[in-house]
Write a structure and sequence with these properties.
CATH class of the largest domain: Alpha Beta
Oligomer: single chain
Structural class: alpha/beta
Strand content: 25-35%
Distance between the termini: 12 Å
Order of helices and strands: EHEEEHEEEEEHEHEHEHEEEEEEEH
Number of domains: 2
CATH superfamily of the largest domain: FAD/NAD(P)-binding domain
Radius of gyration: 21 Å
Number of helices: 7
Largest sheet: 7 strands, mixed
Bound molecules: flavin-adenine dinucleotide
Length: 313
């Protein structure tokens, strides 16, 4: 019987593990191998992280996550390099199944993150972190004074376009339709921003130039006429949504309409007592390593107090 099982090994999972281990909860972590991504989470697929406090010269994402892991191991976190395939949250202790083996715990911290949706082009994949990004807050700074494009028509795309307009020379929103899905207020803000222009009824069919290892243009197709044009740009931001990794919790926890875990405001408590959620899996607003780590810390503290109150610690 475990006091707490942590699912996920990004900034949220490891921070929860550090706090839980130091509170003597002997946490067991499943770091995720296949379905949800990779051990270490989303920062494993990025290069420079310049906004994580404590690293004034920046740090590579994988290097940062190696340090997170070292710190949770130092305090005794038991790490399983495997996915959780199934959970039963209908009764306590909770049952967690991984690679055919059952594990039981009084409490769970879910930190399975979310994955950005991509257009799905080969050239887009080849140029990720080399001019193609899915996070304006993370990477906008690298495009100061440059011309960038953003794909999407929802609130996130408008928010990211406005954010990028504060640093890029020009921002072009590329949208497949002739109207936006974003809320009126977000639309108005973007439409009235002199640095943002819109390409309506256009889709990106190729990002150039993988051979050069950098973005210098987009091949666009008009969704109405089929006309193909070339548009020079130095950066491409994809803002077409995220998939929270919540498939295994479907029907067992309250999720919002986009699949994110719903937590009680101001806490990491989910709809099931004893189950807590931290990081991007419950946050479609900030989606940053530091906020994920912050909620990971909160989850571990809430778990510790809940276990103590129930005489389980
Ligand atoms: C390309 C890129 C660049 C970024 N750059 C920055 C940046 O510069 N600064 C910044 O602050 N943020 C950045 N971010 C965002 C940041 O990475 C995320 O906000 C952060 O990683 C979220 O942490 P998390 O712990 O919630 O989830 P994640 O990092 O997504 O980790 C989720 C973990 O859960 C595991 N998992 C999923 N399903 C299962 C399962 N069934 N069983 C077991 N494990 C499972 C995964 O394997 C993974 O280890 C970037 C994101 C991307 C994609």
């Amino acid at each position: 019987m475990n006091k707490v099982i942590i699912i996920g090994s990004g900034p949220a999972g490891h921070t929860a593990a550090i706090y839980a281990a130091r509170a003597n909860l002997k946490p067991v972590m499943f770091e995720g191998m296949v379905k949800g991504g990779i051990p270490g989470g989303q920062l494993m697929i990025t290069t420079e992280v310049e906004n994580y406090p404590g690293f004034p010269d920046g740090i590579k994402g994988p290097e940062l996550m190696e340090l997170f892991k070292k710190q949770s191991e130092r305090f005794g976190t038991e790490i399983h390099s495997a996915d959780v395939d199934e959970v039963d949250l209908s009764k306590r202790p909770f049952r967690v199944v991984s690679e055919g083996q059952e594990h039981f715990a009084h409490s769970l911290i879910i930190a399975t993150g979310a994955q950005a949706k991509w257009i799905g082009l080969e050239s887009e994949t080849a140029l990720r972190n080399r001019g193609v990004s899915a996070c304006a807050t993370c990477d906008g700074f690298f495009f100061r004074g440059q011309d960038v494009c953003i794909v999407g028509g929802g609130d996130t795309a408008m928010e990211e376009a406005n954010y990028l307009s504060g640093m890029a020379k020009t921002v072009t929103v590329i949208h497949r339709r002739d109207s936006l899905r974003a809320s009126k207020i977000m639309q108005d803000r973007a439409l009235n921003n002199p640095k943002i222009k819109f390409f309506w009824n256009k889709e990106v069919i190729e990002v150039l130039d993988p051979a050069a290892g950098t973005v210098n243009a987009l091949r666009l197709r008009d969704t109405v006429t089929g006309e193909v044009t070339l548009h020079p740009t130095q950066g491409l931001f994809i803002a077409i949504g995220h998939y929270p990794n919540t498939e295994i919790f479907n029907g067992q926890l309250t999720l919002d309409e986009n699949g994110y875990i719903v937590t009680k405001p101001g806490t990491t408590q989910t709809s099931v007592e004893g189950v807590y959620a931290a990081g991007d899996v419950q946050d479609h607003v900030y989606r940053q390593a530091i906020t994920a780590a912050g909620t990971g810390c909160a989850a571990a503290i809430e778990v510790e107090r809940w276990l103590a109150a129930g005489g389980l610690h």
